[in-house]
Amino acid sequence: MKCSLGIPCFAQALSPEGAAIVSGFAKESEAIQRKADEQIAKSRRKAINELDEVKSKFTKSGRLEDAVAIRDLIRKLEGFLEIGLFQHPETKDYLSAASRETIDEASKKGYKLLSIQGLIHAEQAPNTIPLLTYWDEARNDYATFATQDGIDSVKNSTYRLIRVEGYVYSRKVPSSLPFVLFWNGKDNVTVAESLQSELEKLAFKRKRIECWIDKPN
Known about the structure:
Elements lengths: L15 H45 L3 H14 L2 E8 L6 E4 L2 H10 L2 E10 L6 E9 L4 E5 L2 H6 L6 E10 L6 E8 L4 E5 L3 H5 L4 E10 L3
Antiparallel strand pairs: 1-2, 1-3, 4-5, 4-6, 7-8, 7-9
Helix pairs in contact: 1-2
């Protein structure tokens, strides 16, 4: 059993004097950690504000590539990842990915970026759940789920979980977009709701909202 900061809960087995020392150390350590977290957050916010000023200067001077690079850096400092929609030109399989690992693997297989869907959290935050990527080697097919229904649908199949892409909202929050699962009888794709009409032209039908993601800036 672990207490705060990984300190074993053995204080109750100590003498009152020993227990008091351990308790005092735990409280002091927690106070130091809180102060450090506050200082880091303040420093991060300062860096983000300064980078935002640089981005504005690049945008006004027409240095758009530099401005985009600064924007991406700001997103990383804020703890966000862009989630893109990819497709294989031959198999026509779709993939929504945000992690560098999945994107690199898919790129080596021939997948191409079609568009940026929005933003997801790099680390778990309140009201968020993991966005999971599965891969079926036999079918050369990716699947992306966040709901238990989605996870259960591949539980007894040849799909295997390859990684957590990031973290998404389990329910609607301000400035969020529905991330929806579509199915055409052979293939599935999880994308921003705004692509529904385009997918319906390709015989995809809406199944359910898997989660919610942040709007792209």
